[in-house]
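for the writeup, i need someone to sanity check this before i put it in the appendix. the sequnce is what the collaborator sent (i think, or maybe the updated version? ugh). structure was predicted straight from it, no edits. if anything looks off just tell me and ill rerun, i have time this weekend
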Amino acid sequence: MFSVNLINHAGFSNGQEQKLISALKKFETVMNSDLLKQRILNFSSTLGNRFEDNLGLSNEQVFEKLYAGAEEYSPLADYEADLYLFLVKKRRPLLSRHPAIGYGIPGQKEIYTYTWWFNSAVDYDYAGHIAHEWSHKVGFDHAFNPTSTRNFSVPYAFGNIIEELSKQII
Protein backbone atom coordinates (compact mmCIF):
# COMPACT_ATOMS: atom_id res chain seq x y z
CA MET A 1 0.00 0.00 0.00
CA PHE A 2 1.32 3.41 -1.01
CA SER A 3 1.10 6.27 1.48
CA VAL A 4 1.54 10.03 1.30
CA ASN A 5 3.45 11.57 4.21
CA LEU A 6 3.42 15.29 4.79
CA ILE A 7 6.78 15.71 6.51
CA ASN A 8 6.77 19.51 6.59
CA HIS A 9 4.72 22.39 5.25
CA ALA A 10 4.60 26.16 5.65
CA GLY A 11 2.86 29.24 4.30
CA PHE A 12 -0.68 27.80 4.41
CA SER A 13 -3.53 29.45 6.31
CA ASN A 14 -6.07 27.23 8.09
CA GLY A 15 -8.41 27.41 5.09
CA GLN A 16 -5.60 26.64 2.66
CA GLU A 17 -4.54 23.69 4.80
CA GLN A 18 -7.97 22.12 4.26
CA LYS A 19 -7.34 22.15 0.49
CA LEU A 20 -3.84 20.79 1.09
CA ILE A 21 -5.10 17.86 3.19
CA SER A 22 -7.88 17.08 0.70
CA ALA A 23 -5.38 17.07 -2.19
CA LEU A 24 -3.04 14.74 -0.30
CA LYS A 25 -5.87 12.30 0.43
CA LYS A 26 -6.82 12.28 -3.25
CA PHE A 27 -3.22 11.77 -4.33
CA GLU A 28 -2.88 8.79 -1.97
CA THR A 29 -6.20 7.27 -3.03
CA VAL A 30 -5.30 7.51 -6.71
CA MET A 31 -1.81 6.09 -6.11
CA ASN A 32 -3.47 2.99 -4.64
CA SER A 33 -5.96 2.55 -7.47
CA ASP A 34 -5.82 -0.06 -10.19
CA LEU A 35 -7.02 2.63 -12.56
CA LEU A 36 -3.79 4.61 -12.12
CA LYS A 37 -1.70 1.54 -12.81
CA GLN A 38 -3.68 0.82 -15.96
CA ARG A 39 -3.44 4.44 -17.15
CA ILE A 40 0.35 4.43 -16.75
CA LEU A 41 0.86 0.96 -18.23
CA ASN A 42 -1.31 1.85 -21.24
CA PHE A 43 -0.01 5.43 -21.66
CA SER A 44 0.48 6.37 -25.27
CA SER A 45 1.04 9.55 -27.22
CA THR A 46 2.36 10.66 -30.58
CA LEU A 47 5.63 9.08 -29.40
CA GLY A 48 4.02 5.64 -29.21
CA ASN A 49 3.36 3.57 -26.09
CA ARG A 50 5.90 5.43 -23.93
CA PHE A 51 6.54 8.60 -21.98
CA GLU A 52 8.91 11.34 -23.08
CA ASP A 53 11.95 11.75 -20.79
CA ASN A 54 11.31 8.31 -19.29
CA LEU A 55 14.93 7.51 -18.27
CA GLY A 56 14.85 4.69 -20.81
CA LEU A 57 12.16 2.90 -18.80
CA SER A 58 9.12 1.04 -20.08
CA ASN A 59 5.70 2.20 -18.89
CA GLU A 60 5.67 -0.66 -16.38
CA GLN A 61 9.06 0.40 -15.03
CA VAL A 62 7.88 4.02 -14.81
CA PHE A 63 4.93 2.87 -12.69
CA GLU A 64 7.19 0.73 -10.49
CA LYS A 65 9.63 3.63 -9.96
CA LEU A 66 6.84 6.02 -9.01
CA TYR A 67 5.10 3.49 -6.75
CA ALA A 68 8.37 2.58 -5.00
CA GLY A 69 8.57 6.17 -3.74
CA ALA A 70 12.36 6.24 -3.58
CA GLU A 71 13.06 9.96 -3.63
CA GLU A 72 16.58 11.05 -4.54
CA TYR A 73 17.03 12.37 -0.99
CA SER A 74 15.80 9.09 0.54
CA PRO A 75 16.65 6.47 -2.08
CA LEU A 76 15.20 3.34 -0.46
CA ALA A 77 11.92 2.01 -1.82
CA ASP A 78 9.45 2.77 0.98
CA TYR A 79 6.23 3.05 -1.07
CA GLU A 80 5.69 6.56 0.28
CA ALA A 81 5.68 10.07 -1.06
CA ASP A 82 7.59 12.03 1.57
CA LEU A 83 6.47 15.61 1.01
CA TYR A 84 7.84 18.99 2.04
CA LEU A 85 5.28 21.50 0.74
CA PHE A 86 5.60 25.27 0.87
CA LEU A 87 3.22 27.97 -0.31
CA VAL A 88 5.00 31.05 -1.66
CA LYS A 89 3.29 34.43 -1.96
CA LYS A 90 3.58 35.60 -5.54
CA ARG A 91 1.36 37.43 -8.01
CA ARG A 92 0.64 36.00 -11.44
CA PRO A 93 3.20 37.27 -13.97
CA LEU A 94 1.52 39.69 -16.36
CA LEU A 95 3.44 38.99 -19.56
CA SER A 96 3.76 35.21 -19.47
CA ARG A 97 1.29 33.01 -21.35
CA HIS A 98 2.36 29.83 -19.51
CA PRO A 99 3.70 30.92 -16.14
CA ALA A 100 5.12 28.39 -13.69
CA ILE A 101 2.68 27.53 -10.90
CA GLY A 102 5.43 26.28 -8.63
CA TYR A 103 8.78 24.57 -8.64
CA GLY A 104 11.26 22.34 -6.89
CA ILE A 105 15.03 22.64 -6.80
CA PRO A 106 16.90 19.57 -8.09
CA GLY A 107 18.46 17.61 -5.24
CA GLN A 108 16.33 19.32 -2.59
CA LYS A 109 13.24 18.03 -0.79
CA GLU A 110 10.98 21.07 -0.98
CA ILE A 111 8.10 21.61 -3.38
CA TYR A 112 7.00 25.23 -3.75
CA THR A 113 3.63 26.42 -5.04
CA TYR A 114 2.71 30.03 -5.85
CA THR A 115 -0.30 31.56 -4.09
CA TRP A 116 -1.58 33.21 -7.29
CA TRP A 117 -2.29 29.72 -8.66
CA PHE A 118 -3.08 27.83 -5.44
CA ASN A 119 -5.80 30.26 -4.35
CA SER A 120 -7.85 29.64 -7.50
CA ALA A 121 -7.06 25.91 -7.80
CA VAL A 122 -9.23 23.13 -6.41
CA ASP A 123 -7.94 20.12 -4.50
CA TYR A 124 -7.63 17.85 -7.55
CA ASP A 125 -5.61 20.54 -9.38
CA TYR A 126 -3.24 20.69 -6.44
CA ALA A 127 -3.02 16.88 -6.26
CA GLY A 128 -1.84 16.92 -9.89
CA HIS A 129 0.70 19.65 -9.19
CA ILE A 130 2.08 17.77 -6.19
CA ALA A 131 2.35 14.61 -8.30
CA HIS A 132 4.17 16.50 -11.07
CA GLU A 133 6.70 18.06 -8.70
CA TRP A 134 7.13 14.89 -6.62
CA SER A 135 7.92 12.87 -9.77
CA HIS A 136 10.99 15.13 -10.13
CA LYS A 137 12.01 14.06 -6.62
CA VAL A 138 12.02 10.40 -7.73
CA GLY A 139 14.23 11.28 -10.70
CA PHE A 140 12.04 12.21 -13.67
CA ASP A 141 12.50 15.44 -15.60
CA HIS A 142 11.21 17.32 -18.64
CA ALA A 143 12.32 20.03 -21.02
CA PHE A 144 12.53 23.42 -19.31
CA ASN A 145 10.87 25.31 -22.16
CA PRO A 146 7.60 24.24 -23.78
CA THR A 147 8.06 21.70 -26.59
CA SER A 148 5.63 19.69 -28.68
CA THR A 149 6.27 16.61 -26.51
CA ARG A 150 6.81 18.06 -23.02
CA ASN A 151 3.25 17.16 -21.95
CA PHE A 152 4.16 13.51 -22.62
CA SER A 153 7.04 13.59 -20.12
CA VAL A 154 6.57 11.60 -16.92
CA PRO A 155 6.10 14.68 -14.68
CA TYR A 156 3.49 16.32 -16.92
CA ALA A 157 1.63 13.16 -17.90
CA PHE A 158 1.69 11.71 -14.37
CA GLY A 159 0.47 15.01 -12.90
CA ASN A 160 -2.33 15.18 -15.48
CA ILE A 161 -3.37 11.58 -14.81
CA ILE A 162 -3.42 12.15 -11.04
CA GLU A 163 -5.48 15.32 -11.54
CA GLU A 164 -7.97 13.56 -13.86
CA LEU A 165 -8.46 10.59 -11.56
CA SER A 166 -8.64 12.84 -8.47
CA LYS A 167 -11.61 14.66 -10.02
CA GLN A 168 -13.55 11.41 -9.71
CA ILE A 169 -13.00 11.22 -5.94
CA ILE A 170 -15.51 12.99 -3.71
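The mean pLDDT is 94. Strands lie at 3-10, 80-88, 102-104, 110-114.
thx in advance!!
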